[in-house]
Amino acid sequence: MKCGVVVFPGSNCDHDVYHVLKHVLGQDATFLWHQDTSLKGCELIVLPGGWSYGDYLRGGALAALSPVMAAVKRHAEAGGLVLGICNGFQVLVEAGLLPGAMRRNERLRFECRDVFLRVERDDLPYTRGYRKGQVIRMPIAHGEGNYENTGPELDRLEASGAVAFRYVSPRGELDAEFNFNGSARAIAGVCNPGGNVLGLMPHPERCAEEVLGNSDGLPLFQSAVAAAARPFQSAGGAR
Amino acid sequence: MRAKIIVYPRREILDPQGKAICDALHRVGFEQVKDVRAGKSFQVELDAADPAGAEQALREMCRKLLVNAVVEDFEVEIVRTEGTRAEAAQ
């Protein structure tokens, strides 16, 4: 499958994602520059972590207006796969492809650590390699990953199954102590109604090889690659 | 024309930065401080003659880029109506 990793000025996890797609999974991976207006036939688009445009104004706000994002929006609206990791999640939120907003971490600390995530959806193109309720471990590294939305909108997201991952304790329970950035409802990852766009703050590309001591992130990429081979049924039918 | 845009976290949303600043103000003796919201401001120079039209454009700028309406509110104020951009730069 042809996979595109978007490079914004300030992206710094682009090569990690490229490595997983190309060398771990053997896919045809390529970099897309933020000024590109075409996705060059890529089926899976990944917006990587980093500090696009120096996080000026708000994390992801300026990247969301870059030329490549118009093509990414068209791809997403046509049902194409778009994955945003960390800053890439912020870009998707600012671009309006995912709901909500990201704020400064509640404890005002840059959190660089492993977290435990509970898989809330195992029927998404990115999560079929997991089981619903499974607890996985992934690293986070961000200062602004405090997911926020209005109360009614959060209720709507929960009801529609938009929450893909939640920060939990090692035993899989909701616990404020393990919600390191203070995200509303401990939300670590959300998807769009079609399930083809996913954003998450943790870094699956940093735990996708046994040699790194953790490969909990690998099923996410394996699932996406497998999903590209067969079209995804929209969330309504899949749940 | 010069305008000022102030962006601050919405009232109903906890502002961790503002709270930390509020606590620090208490520590240096300003016990009367009840709440602080930490935001940002923009000074915008415009080529525009009509204040109403300019204000409309400024609000549009906020909606399209300067403000994230999920977590932020904003205020727009025309600070000075006379003068061109060249004069303002002096």
Order of helices and strands of chain A: EHEEHEHEEEEHEEEHH
Q: Quaternary arrangement of the chains shown?
A: heterodimer
- Count of beta strands of chain B: 3
Please count the beta strands of chain A (DSSP E, at least 2 residues each): 11
Poorly predicted runs of 5 or more residues of chain B = none
Total domains of chain B: 1
The whole-number mean of residue pLDDT values of chain B reads: 90
Distance between the termini of chain B: 14 Å
Largest interface, per-chain counts?
A: A-B, 18 and 11 residues
- CATH level 3 topology of chain A: Rossmann fold
User: What share of residues of chain B is helical?
Assistant: 25-40%
- The total domain count of chain A is 1
Main-sheet strand order of chain B equals: 2-1-3
CATH class of chain B: Alpha Beta
- Looking at the structure, the CATH topology of chain B is Mth169, Chain: A
Q: Could you give the distance between the termini of chain A?
A: 26 Å
